[in-house]
Amino acid sequence: MVEVFKTNVQKTKQATALIVILSNRFANTTILFDLEDCDKILRVESHSINSAAIIEVVQAQGYHCEILN
Predict the structure, then answer these.
(1) Cα distance between residue 59 and residue 65, in whole Å
(2) 66: which residues sit within 8 A by CB, 6+ positions away?
(3) Pairing label, strands 30-34, 65-67
């Protein structure tokens, strides 16, 4: 299962910190950012994805995050 989110993360350092936080919270999940994309994509791959929880964690760190349609 794959879910793609639109974020406002701008820098690699910010993305790296979020990946660590998300990886600690969601085990057995592949988490990648594409900051070159205009939507600053966060891509999450796992057997089961709780999109609301991912959005909540990212927003708690001060960033915008929504499911990309």
Answers:
(1) 6
(2) 5, 6, 55
(3) unpaired
- pLDDT band of residue 69 (cuts 50, 70, 90) is confident
> How far, in Å, CA of 45 to CA of 1, rounded?
6
pLDDT digits (tens, 9 = 90+) for 23-37: 999 999 999 999 999
Which element (helix H / strand E) includes 49? Answer: none
Strand 41-45 versus strand 65-67 pairing type? unpaired
CA atoms within 13 A on the CB side of 61: 20
Average pLDDT, stretch 24-52?
Answer: 97
* 69 DSSP β-pair partners: none
pTM over 0.85: yes
